[in-house]
Amino acid sequence: MVAANSAPCGVCYYCRREQENLCEDLLFNNGAYAEYIRIPERIVNKNMYEVPEHVSYQDAALVEPLACVLRGLEECGVRAGDTVAVIGLGPIGMMFVRLAKAVYNARVIAIGRRPTQLDRAARMGADQMVINSEGADIVEPVRGMTGGRGADVVIEAVGLPELWQLAIQLLRRGGVVNFFGGCPSDTHVSLDTNLLHYSELTCKASFHHSPALIRKALDIISRGFVTAKDFVNRVEPLTNLLEVMKHLMSHNGHLKTAIIP
Ligand SMILES: [Zn+2]
Question: What pTM value is reported for the model?
């Protein structure tokens, strides 16, 4: 079985409006670094699924981040043939690249800081790459790749105020941006009001997922569109957890580590 990390109540104002991700009583089950885990009853009833036989545990473990990414793409109304620019190529950015390409048949422009990330994005299906090195202009290259228009959809998957501001400059008129990366608290952005108004830009900021999207994510995994091999590049036993966490905090280019109890 695979259990999501939350379950909505199903009866509050938000749940009744199909915004279960914003449920007033969202029940979380945080922390799964153990040999056994007690899943709360509500999650068992509403957000736990049987893993198909051909799907590995490592693959199934991707349902949660994938469901969040799916929500991000659905909120933007991505259509086949759209140009989707993804800023930030960590695990989440890579999932956006992969799903935008494989599931939504979009044309993907991947924007990242390191050449190794751009290579990986190309293997995930990105059509074009832009390096966002210190002081580099990324607005011109993206406009150049889109006939001067800008991208239909821009995803910010880093969580830096300056990149939120940059993201809207990459959009075409009538385009949609998703400020997906959560910024540090107490940070603010300054947006060009004329650009927002006269170019009729839509700003979204997706958060979390819903049971329907967890099911959809599991379906995408079971059909082979996404596999843990693309995202997990390290396997460690539970006893090494502290060391793994320290390692992750130093941003050393590792994507995801599978913890095997
Ligand atoms: Zn609710």
Answer: 0.95
